[in-house]
Structures are given as C-alpha cells and as structure tokens.
Amino acid sequence: MKITLLGLLLGASSIFPGSIAVVQAQIAISEINYNSDSLNSSGDWIELFNYSTSSVDLSLWKIMDSQPANAFTIPTGTVIPPNGRLVLAENLIKFDQRFPGIPRLGPLSFGLAGSGEQITLMDQNGIVKVQLTYDDSLPWSKCADGMGRTLEIIDPQGNPNDPANWRCGCVLGSPNAPFTPCTSEVVVVSEINYNSDSVNNPADWFELWNTSNSPVNISNWYVRDDNNGNVFQLPPNTYLNPKARLVVYRDAAAFSAMFPHVTNKVGPFSFGLSNSGDCIRIYDSQDRLKFTVCYADKLPWPLEADGGGYTLELDTLFNPSQDVCSPNSWFIGCLYGSPGKAFSPCNASFPESTAPLAVQIFPNPTRDLITIETGMESEGLVQLMDLQGRFISTNKVLSFPITLSLQDFSEGLYVVRVEQEGRIALHKLALLR
Q1: Which of 260, 225, 290, 11 shows the shortest CA–CA distance to 127?
Q2: Do 9 and 120 lie in a common domain?
Q3: Alpha carbon distance 307, 277 (integer Å)
Q4: Which of 91, 151, 346, 349 could form a disulfide linkage to 32, CB 3.0–4.6 angstroms apart?
Q5: Which pLDDT score is estimated for 11?
Q6: DSSP tally for the chain: helices H, then strands E
Q7: Which residues contact 19 (CB under 8 A, 6 or more apart)?
Q8: Burial category of 314 from C-beta neighbours within 10 Å (exposed 0-12, middle 13-18, buried 19 and up)
Q9: According to the model, what pLDDT value does residue 415 have?
Q10: Residues contacting residue 3 through CB under 8 Å, at least 6 positions apart
C-alpha cells in the first residue's frame, strides 16, 4: 500500500480542510508498513518518531488517511520522550503475533491503501503536524507493496514527500526501533538476468549468495517473484558454503548452452522475471521471509540489463546497511554476466571493427563537460565505464558531436566507449575535482 507525504514536516505552509495552517513539527512519520507480505503479515502500521530534545504529549492527537472520517484518536496521557517512537497498528492481533512484546496503540479504524495514500497527523487543536503521500511505483520503491519490507525515512527533518528521503527497511521492518543494518539477511540475491538479448539468450536466471562465513542450509527453501502463485522450491540437501553462490535458472538447455561450465546451479523455475520490473523473494522451508529485492527497467536503474545482454550485479562492496532495493546498490557488470561466481574485471575485448571509429574527446582531463566528436553525424551510443569494466552510464546519441556533463561522478580514471555505425572506440578519460 502507499502513503503520500503531502504535509509539510518543516514549517512550510499548506491548507488542510478547515483552513488549518501547518506548523513546524517535532514528530515525524518514520516508518510505514502499508502492505505486508501476505505470508508474514503484521497488518498495516505506522511509526511516529520524536526527533526533538523534549518530550511531546500526543494526547488527543489524530491520525487519518485521505478520508478525514477515517481518524484514530491517540489516547490521553500518551507521551513520546526525546528520540522516542510510537507504533500505531491497524490490527493488534496480527501485529502482536509478528512482534510480541513491542508496544503499540490501536487498532486504527482504517487501513493503508496499496496503491497510494495520504496520511495526516494533527494535534489536539487541529493543527496539522505531518501530512504525506506515498506510492508503490517509481520513483517510490515497490519493496513495501506486499513484498515484505517497509518504508523507512532517511532524514526525519527532511521533506517527507520526497521519495529520495525514504529507503526500504529490513525484511518485516523495525517497529519501535531505529533502522539498523539487515544483518539477519544472510542469503541474498547478488545477480539478476531478467531480459537477455535476442541473439545469446540463456533465459532468466538469478544468483543466490551466502554473505556469511558459515554454511547455510537452504534445503526446501522457496523462491517467489511478486506473485505468490509463482513459486520454486529449492531441492533437498541444498547447502551454501561460506561466501558460495548458486544460480537458479529458468531453462536448463538455454542456460547450459550459454554457460556450459557453470555447475553450481538449480532449476528450472516455471515463472519468468518481468521485463518491466519485478521482485524476487526468498523464504525458508517454513515460509518465513528471509530476503526480498525489487528492480525496475527504468532510470535510474541500469537500462543495459533490459535486453542489452547485461545483468544486474550487486555492489561488490555491498553491506547490510545498504538499501538492496535501491538502484545505487546495483551496477552493470560484464557482457552476459558472471553466473555462479563473484564479479571480476571484464577481460573480454569489445568486437571492434577492422575500421576503428575515429573519436576525439576533449578536454581530457576534464572537471565536468566533455565533447565527443566522431566526424559522422549519425546516431550512436556513448558509455562510461570504470576501470573494472563496469558500465556506470549509458547515453543514446541522435547525432554527433555531443557534449556531456560528468558532474555526478567522482574524481578518477574512466573509460569512454563510443559506438557508431558498427564501429567502436575506447578512450581513457581523467576526471578532476
């Protein structure tokens, strides 16, 4: 489900029904569980956070969705201390079953919509303290829309209506507690091939990685995409050794034809990974959710993985504090990926033509802008790679010359790959700051 932050947490003005002015708040909506994983449901719930240095009395405050009639009144005597939190739950039975012993109030008289919702918090005088709207589609992550994660705010004093100020929490969330690294998520998805190119097509596959230093028994675990009916069960006696990887494939013949030397693999799974974005969920043998990742085929996600022959690779330095559902945690690796093993710098050469493309790139070194000239005005492709061979930027060019900005990239050495009319050129580039 979704929540929209239309309210203004930091003193900007807005009008709520009844011409109620929004004032600066000391309370933030800090975590939202608007659509639980149906197999591990805790019901809908909202976490409030007091980010001030003083206690805040919430007696007779109200929280509501987009319908003012759907309001829950916080009981008299409810006080949140400095840096304290309060959970408001829609279904107390489900919440207590999933999080026994965690303080909460409720039940709320309303649920949170899975397709987008406005949430409003007002004090006892009818002054709006927080009002926000969330969504379940880009630029919001899909991870909280029935996929088992929650939305957690990054900066409680920042703009709650900015999707960039929210991250995916750990599996099942962290009610009444701050976000902490997801150290319990030991077996993760580390590579995804969801849309192969039409010429070399191993069919869909993804890679599981044991990030720990201990073996993990994943016998009879389940894999699902974003549909509960699409399920694949891992075979009995399946173990992942420390730091080991395992490929889960959809088509045995297609995968083996492309990767005949990859033996650490299981399959086939009967469902496909969607070309327009999907989720992969990992459950243990008792259907307890262990891990979820969601990807998309639109920017800022790398576009080369959508039919371009590349895969999504998890950040080689990924750690449990990162948001695994953020595009910043993924990159484009080598052509056709590295199934069953860790990413290593690409050693395959590009298929350059016998008449190499003549390219000029200037200035080089540069502090921001570069101009690329090929001498031909036809369309082409400009890609930026790091020195490990990972593609970090792709630009389709309708006509050369072209001027590009590199202001979003860090200082260092890069490789610029230019492709035009079947010809390819590679040039090193130094970016200064």
Answers
A1: 11
A2: yes
A3: 13
A4: 151
A5: 30
A6: 2, 33
A7: none
A8: buried
A9: 86
A10: 29, 32, 34, 46, 112, 116, 117, 118, 119, 132, 133, 134, 151
Say which residue the tokens 């969607």 belong to. 274
Tokens representing 404 are 């590009």
* Comparison of pLDDT for 239 and 308, the residue scoring more: 239
CA 37 – CA 29 distance, rounded (Å): 21
Is there a single domain that holds both residue 221 and residue 152? no
Question: Which residues, 6+ apart, have CB-to-CB distance to 34 below 8 Å?
Answer: 1, 2, 3, 44, 112, 113, 114, 117, 134, 144, 145, 151
Quick one: 136 and 9 in the same domain? yes
Amino acid at 272: G
Q: Which two tokens stand for residue 261?
A: 């030397």
Model confidence band, residue 352 (pLDDT cutoffs 50, 70, 90): very low
Mean pLDDT across the chain, nearest whole number? Answer: 89
50 touches 85 (CB < 8 A) = yes
Residue type, 39: L
Please identify, among 99, 133, 168, the residue that sits at the C-terminal boundary of a domain: 168
Residues 6+ away with beta carbon under 8 Å from 316: 342, 343
Residue 14 carries which side chain, given as an amino acid letter?
S
Is the distance from CB of 185 to CB of 197 less than 8 angstroms?
Answer: no
- On whether the CB atoms of residues 71 and 62 are closer than 8 A, the answer is yes
Residue 377's pLDDT band, with cuts at 50, 70 and 90, is confident
pLDDT tens-digit readout, 279-307: 999 999 999 999 999 999 988 898 889 98
* Neighbour count for residue 392 (Cβ, 10 Å): 15
Residues 206 and 284 occupy one common structural domain: yes
Q: Cβ neighbours of residue 408 under 8 Å, at least 6 residues apart? A: none
Q: In CATH, what number is assigned to the domain containing residue 225?
A: 2.60.40.1260
Question: Could you tell me the two tokens for 345?
Answer: 């710098």
